[in-house]
Amino acid sequence: MPHVIVKLWPGKSEQQKARLAEAITQDVMDVLHYGEESVSVAFEEISAQDWAEKVYKPEIVKKVASLYKKPGYTM
Questions:
Q1: Model confidence at 68, in pLDDT bands (50, 70, 90)?
Q2: pTM above 0.70, yes or no
């Protein structure tokens, strides 16, 4: 615990995904004070054609209250 799932379009290299997994793991350890052995990171590739139905509508629109970073440019 925790387990982080990153959903993204296909096309990123294994090296990019490994670097992101390392960065996420380090941030989880730094911010939440878990050891590396407690953190897991997975990637789910979702095609652009399926994004709206499989990710945007069910996980962003319907769960907007639980988002700490919403889509868009402001942070």
A1: very high
A2: yes
